Amino acid sequence: MTTFSTTLPGGTWTLGDLTVTRVGYGAMQLAGPGVMGPPADRDGALAVLREAVELGITHVDTAEAYGPHVTNQLIREALHPYPSSLHVVTKVGATRDAAGGWPPARSRDDLRRAVDENLDSLGLDVLDVVNLRMGDATGPQPGSLATELETLVDLQRQGLVRHLGVSNVTREQVAEARAIAPIVCVQNMYNLAVRHDDELVDELAAAGIAYVPFFPLGGFSPLQSAALTAVAERLGSTAMSVALAWLLHRSPNILLIPGTRSVAHLRENVAGAGLALSDADLASLDGIGRADVLAGPR
Ligand SMILES: NC(=O)c1ccc[n+]([C@@H]2O[C@H](COP(=O)([O-])OP(=O)(O)OC[C@H]3O[C@@H](n4cnc5c(N)ncnc54)[C@H](OP(=O)(O)O)[C@@H]3O)[C@@H](O)[C@H]2O)c1
User: Fold this and answer.
1) Sign of CA dihedral 135, 193, 293, 202
2) pLDDT per residue as tens digits for the range 24-73
3) Measured from the CB, is residue 104 less than 6 Å from ligand 1?
4) What is the average pLDDT value for the chain, to the nearest integer?
5) Is residue 234 part of a domain?
6) Exposure pattern of 242-280 as b/e (b: 16+ CB <10 Å)?
7) Is residue 122 part of a domain?
8) What is the pLDDT of residues 124-133, one digit of tens each?
C-alpha cells in the first residue's frame, strides 16, 4: 500500500489498498459539448489535468464513454506515465449512441470490451478501480446486478481490475453487490440539493466504503439556492466552494470528484473544499435538500 501525506482538504481515504486524496477530480466534462467529441480547447483540457496532479490530487474519475474515448485519451496524454500515487477510477456499463445518448452496455462481451478499451486508452496493465454503472440516464433502476458484477469479478480474478465499485444504484443493489464481492466505492448522484442517498451515505461510512457523489456541484445545472448564496456571502466565498466543503463535512467517507474545464475553477474548488463551516452554516445548508425535508421521487 502506498502511504503519503497530503495538505489537501479532508486528507486521504483508502480504496481497498489504494490511498487517495478525498479531494479528487472528475474528468467527464473535458470532452466536447454533451460529453461528445474533442474539447474546444485541447491544451486547456491537458493543463487542467496536469494542474490537478500538481495540486496533489491523486484520484481522477473517468469513463471510456466520455467522448467516447476522448477523456481517457486526454488523461493518458497529460499524465502518462502516471505518478505511483495517482489512481484513475473508471466505469463500465454504458456506451454512447450517435445522438449522444448513454445506452446500457452490460452484456458479458460489452463489459469485457469496456475493460479492454479502458486499459488500452489509459495505457495501463490493470485498472485500479472499476465502477459498474447500472440504471440509466434518469437514475438508478430496480433489478439485480448479479450477472454484471460477477462478470467484473471474473475480470478481477484475471488480474485486469484491482478493485470494484458500483454506480447509479439503489440501496438494495448496493447490498446485493456487497454480498457478491468486496465493494470499495459507490458513485451516485448526490449534492446539497439532492439527498436521496442520505441513509446510504451513513450506512457505507459505517462499513468503511467510500461514497463518491457525482454532480457534486449540480452537474449540467449548477447548484442554486438562496441559503447557499447567503452562507457563501457570509464567508466571503463562493457557492461552489461552500457546496464542496459541505460534502467533506457531511461524512468522512465522501470523496469529491468535481468537474471543471478551467484551471482557475480547479484551484478554487481545491481551496474551497477546505472552508471551515460553523454549526450555524451547516444547519442552514442542511435544510436545502435533506431527504426528510424534501421528500420526492428521484
Ligand atoms: N457515475 C455516473 O453515472 C456519473 C454521471 C455523471 C458524472 N459522473 C462523474 O462525476 C464527475 C463530476 O460531474 P460533473 O463534472 O458533470 O458535474 P459537477 O462537478 O457537479 O459540475 C461541473 C460543472 O460545474 C462548473 N464548475 C466547476 N467548478 C466551478 C467553479 N469553481 N465555479 C463555477 N463553476 C464551476 C463546471 O464548469 P467549468 O468547466 O466552467 O468550471 C461544470 O459545468 C464527472 O466528471 C464524472 O467523472 C459520473
Assistant:
1) positive
2) 999 999 999 999 999 999 999 999 999 999 999 999 999 999 999 999 99
3) no
4) 95
5) no
6) bbbbbbbbbeebbbbbbbbbebebbebbbbbbebebeee
7) yes
8) 999 999 999 9
Could you identify the residue written with the cell 454532480? 215
Burial class (CB in 10 A: 0-12, 13-18, 19+), 136: middle
Residues 35 and 20: their CA atoms lie apart, in Å, by: 26
Q: Which domain holds residue 147?
A: 12-221+246-260
Give the ligand 1 atom nearest the CA of 223.
20
Q: Is the CB of 188 under 6 A from ligand 1?
A: no
Position 178 in a domain: yes
Give the chain's domain count.
Answer: 1
- Residue with the nearest Cα to atom 16 of ligand 1? 219
Question: Residue 214 Cα, ligand 1 centroid: separation in angstroms?
Answer: 8
pLDDT at 197: 97
- Evaluate: CB of 27 within 6 angstroms of ligand 1: yes
Known active-site residue 66: yes
Q: How far apart are CA 236 and CA 228, in angstroms?
A: 12
Q: Is the predicted pLDDT of residue 296 greater than 50, yes or no?
A: no
Measured from the CB, is residue 132 less than 6 Å from ligand 1? no
Instruction: Tell me whether residue 88 is in a domain.
Output: yes
Q: Whose CA is nearest to atom 10 of ligand 1?
A: 214
CATH number at residue 194: 3.20.20.100
- The CB of 240 under 6 Å from ligand 1? The reply is yes
